[in-house]
Model the fold of this input.
Amino acid sequence: MVKEFRLKYGVEPIIHFLIWGSFFTVLWFQASTVGPFRKQDGSIYPPLIWSTTLSILLFYFNELYLIPRYFAQHQYKLYLVLVIVLYTGIVLINTGFDHFYAISLFSSEKEPLFSELLLNCLSKSFILSLSLGYGLSKNWVKSNKLQQQLIRDKLVTELKYLKAQINPHFLFNTLNTAYSSAIKNNDDPTADIIEKISGLMRYVLYESNEDKVLLEKEISYIDTYINLQLQRLSSEIADHVHYEVKGDFYNNKIAPMILIPFIENVFKHGVILSKKPEIAIVLYLNSETLVLETKNIINNKNTQLNNTNSGIGMKNVRERLALLYPNLHKLEIHQDNLFFQVRLELQLKPSDI
Done:
């Protein structure tokens, strides 16, 4: 960590400074010996500074914005269009400045517009090539680090599952026995509850270990969980719980168990026996954007916010969102004196569709 910090904030800026200093020196030597400014002492510096500034803009705008925002998110066609527009715009601006302003102001000699355009095309192509090489390498290193982090987190999670495996399986088998007993004694309500709990455990134990699961299975898990919560509540309280699912979720995939912590939080903090719960859970798919909105009444203003921000479950889901959906999610949490609201927007990757 210390070595990485020193490289990023110590060595790397020096390397960039040396690169741009060398680039400026090469331009100065070229302009002072070949270009129309060679006979004018001091006249070459304003256009050189302008050209270097545009080159810096081309390099860093591509490396810091276009590559992470579009190329890294697999939007290759849009990235190609934007980088061509950026490159062409900077070449034309640089050429126009040189031909119609700098040369006429600082030099008595003239140079054909085509020659200046060709020179700027060559120099900016070199800069763009450096930007592509540096930006793509940096993006690859970042993606590789994230992948390694995901692998480590998965190994830790699997180890925890292995350590606790005997207890869930024992409970799962016990539930099957209880279900058979309830059916035998014609206790349908109890059998229904046991069947739903078994379904939840089956999903967690056997189906949610994949990197991605079908979105309809995740929603089915949420349906079962909410139905169980409603069954344990009185009808007066359950009538004030609004749950709605909209959109065509079939053939989409999502990271498993990424939504349920928000829904668990609603029932954990939103059910107050002395008040109407006024719980709302809405889940819908808009194009490639999956949206989850929750709203619940709160009893203590500080309790829920603290639990949401620092609780283990919510902390884990924030970290999973950052690792699995970097730059592809937006989480908004709002709390006032009465209500606690969450809105999660999740951009499904092309591979998830």
Observations:
- The chain has two domains: 2-147, 234-352.
- The domain at 234-352 is CATH 3.30.565.10 (Heat Shock Protein 90).
- Residues 113-163 form the longest helix (51 residues).
- Confidence is low (pLDDT under 50) at residues 1-7.
